[in-house]
Design a protein that fits this description.
Length: about 240
């Protein structure tokens, strides 16, 4: 469901760039206030994510949870977003709700989590540049520093180590992630069961390249993350 929409002229690029900002999470770990509406400095988490998305794209779609129609209308009225829509119960449903309102002439579509307010403008531009350079999709990632174990359950129901992957081959993926618009649409129209956008592109044979992410680009999922983000926010200035 579209809440509100404004028309904004496109800036000169190889083609219009649209950014989808996903903010439909319930944020139960924060209690009554969804995480995207918590303050980070003087502004809300969602405001930071929308501002950097706005600076790096021609158009911005924000996806909100049911019941947040008023917030969506305000974000469009203030110019923080061009379109506000209501998302679904799953991430893929929310992305598809946004895809439904994005113009057919879009060249690149960026998907960004509102819960990553510290992603830099340079990172947004870097993933878009990678798609302009020929990639079907570009995702930022950082090295995995912890040892990762794949577990299984034995006949007694206990968790046991099944494998220790070589962590030099592993990365932790972040957003923003950029996609050729036609590839992302095809991926979401496919019957692939993956819920992650990049995994959907992989499933239809698309090429997903990995670029350097940012250590400060943490995802806020709980109060501890917000406290760390506040320290990083002050440090980054």
């Amino acid at each position: 469901m579209v809440i509100a929409m404004t028309i904004r002229e496109s800036v000169p690029t190889d083609g219009p760039v649209w950014t989808i900002v996903l903010a439909a999470g319930s944020g139960r770990r924060f209690g009554m206030t969804p995480k995207q509406y918590e303050l980070l400095g003087d502004d809300r988490v969602i405001d930071h994510s929308l501002a950097v998305s706005r600076a790096a794209a021609d158009h911005v779609v924000v996806v909100l949870a049911p019941g947040q129609e008023r917030e969506g209308a305000e974000l469009v009225e203030t110019g923080a977003a061009d379109v506000a829509v209501i998302g679904g119960s799953e991430r893929a449903d929310s992305v598809r709700a946004a895809l439904a309102v994005i113009d057919e002439d879009a060249a690149v579509i960026v998907v960004h989590d509102a819960a990553r307010p510290l992603a830099s403008g340079q990172l947004h531009k870097a993933v878009v540049a990678a798609v302009h350079a020929g990639a079907d999709a570009a995702i930022p990632a950082v090295p995995v520093t912890d040892t990762i174990k794949r577990i299984a359950h034995d006949h007694e129901g206990r968790s046991v180590v099944a494998e220790t992957p070589d962590r030099s081959t592993l990365v932790a993926v972040q957003t923003p992630q950029a996609f050729r618009a036609d590839i992302l649409r095809d991926a979401h129209a496919s019957s692939a069961g993956a819920t992650d956008d990049a995994a959907l592109v992989e499933a239809i044979g698309g090429t997903v390249i990995v670029i350097d992410g940012e250590a400060t680009n943490i995802k806020i999922t709980g109060p501890n993350d917000l406290a760390i983000a506040a320290i990083l926010f002050e440090t980054l200035g």
